[in-house]
Design goal:
alpha+beta, Alpha-Beta Plaits, DNA polymerase, domain 1, Dna Ligase, domain 1, 5-stranded mixed β-sheet, 4-stranded antiparallel β-sheet, globular, disordered C terminus, binds magnesium ion
Length: 447
């Protein structure tokens, strides 16, 4: 379904915009390293259990997709370049992307690093046509960030998001077909347009739900129309059944929430060889703490809650969390808490995945770290760990700023703690490519 520019709809008809950057992580890597242009590039984990997080169109032409196990991707494309990812670099680009959307309207809601919803009704007085606004935004993203994107316009979030997906380039028979770049769904198009969609294109329909629906013979949105909601609920749960029923009618009343904020940030890693024993787990906690601390500082925030997630070889998972009376953004402070949390779990089983997440954010200048406190902490974490963390948070601000500066200039592995040092350099280096995917430490190209 292509849109003719002559029939450009009004703001009243398609007030919601969804913009999604193309192959975001992989595109940023290619921008930073021109020798990658035209080559199949992915960001993800390259080891046995690694997963592709983002694939360039050159990689996609050869059948590689995101969420694909890296082992499968390599089989499809032996010359595939898999990069470990640099979360803070992507955040820098994301920040610039968001500010371009903000120039259009402050009524926008980020959805991850590379997707944004915007409500264009705030542009009413400017008498701008939504398609014009979308094309302008696309042009600025291309000219100022050197990134490509797709934009969708619709009556609500459901249509806007489905439309942006349709705006993207496609791979057909290993050939890349340009997408229209901007797609809108006007009122008169809505019903037919939606009915042709596969159910798995709908928001919230993951592979598991899609499979259940297919077992019920439901492949297309039109198939959902005749289905009794109560009987559907028996298969997919009542919440999902209700959502599917309203999507099938084209209804989605979620507003664009411009106050929506990042709720948590973290780092997780699936190991090619599982960690055995507290020593190995604690060493990884230190690495994770560094990544999380640097991401927090890049945002000028401190976190009051830390959570550790462990997945064992039998695929069972455990999590432990602790909320503090003050916020932390210091590596040593976060590390001592992470180790205390991990240490409260029985670590006699091999650990396949370790995650460390920070939440309950405060602006760094509002951190009550200097105040004395007398709260009791949960029995999971020893009081000393919390007190130790507070001391580290207070004492190391100056040192930490200096270290950040050095890493910024010379790369993430230029500075580390002495116990990370091995004959061949920092241990962080050795781990490159051995994780599934997560925010990497901030590296800058060598000067
Ligand atoms: Mg994207």
């Amino acid at each position: 379904m292509s849109n003719s520019p002559n029939s450009s709809p009004s703001l009243h008809e398609v007030p919601i915009l969804h913009v999604d950057l193309d192959a975001f992580f992989a595109s940023v890597e290619i921008l930073d390293d021109p020798s990658l242009v035209g080559r199949p590039v992915c960001v993800g984990g390259s080891a046995a259990r690694g997963v592709i997080a983002s694939a360039s169109y050159e990689a996609r032409r050869q059948g590689v997709t995101s969420a694909m196990p890296s082992v499968v991707a390599r089989r499809l494309c032996p010359e595939l370049i898999i990069l470990p990812g640099r979360f803070e670099r992507y955040e820098q680009y994301s920040h610039r992307f968001h500010s371009l959307v903000n120039d259009l309207t402050p009524e926008y809601e980020p959805l991850g690093l590379d997707e944004v919803f915007a409500d264009l009704r705030s542009l009413r007085r400017l008498r701008i046509r939504p398609v014009e606004a979308a094309q302008q935004l696309r042009r600025r993203i291309r000219e100022e960030l050197f990134l490509e994107c797709g934009v969708g316009l619709g009556r609500n979030k459901l249509f806007a998001k489905l439309a942006s997906k349709r705006s993207k380039p496609r791979i057909v028979d290993h050939q890349l077909l340009e997408g229209p770049g901007v797609v809108w769904v006007s009122r008169e198009m809505e019903r037919n347009w939606l009915e042709e969609m596969p159910v798995r294109a709908l928001w919230g329909v993951g592979p598991a739900t899609a499979k259940k629906l297919q077992q019920l013979g439901l492949y297309w949105v039109r198939d959902l129309r005749g289905v009794d909601q109560a009987s559907l609920a028996r298969h997919v749960g009542s919440a999902m059944a209700a959502t599917l029923a309203s999507y099938a009618r084209g209804e989605d009343d979620r507003p664009v929430d411009s106050r929506r904020e990042l709720k948590s940030l973290g780092h997780d890693q699936t190991f090619a060889t599982s960690l055995v024993g507290p020593g190995e787990v604690f060493a990884q906690c230190r690495h994770h703490a560094g990544v999380v601390a640097r991401a927090l500082r890049a945002q000028g925030r401190v976190a009051r809650t830390l959570s550790v997630v462990l997945r064992f070889d039998d695929l069972t998972s455990l999590s432990r969390s602790q909320t503090l009376p003050f916020g932390v953004d210091d590596e040593a402070a976060i590390c001592s808490l992470a180790q205390a949390l991990a240490g409260s779990v029985d670590l006699s089983r091999p650990v396949r995945l370790l995650g460390l997440y920070a939440s309950s954010f405060l602006a760094r200048e509002n951190n009550p770290v200097q105040l004395s406190f007398g709260v009791s902490v949960s029995s999971d974490v020893r009081d000393e760990a919390v007190e130790h963390s507070r001391e580290r948070q207070m004492s190391s601000a100056a040192l930490r700023d200096a270290l950040d500066d050095i890493r910024q200039r010379y790369g993430a592995n230029s500075v580390g703690v002495a116990s990370d040092l091995y004959g061949d350099g920092l241990r962080i280096e050795r781990q490159r490519g051995s994780h599934a995917f997560g925010p990497e430490s901030p590296t800058t190209p060598a000067p």
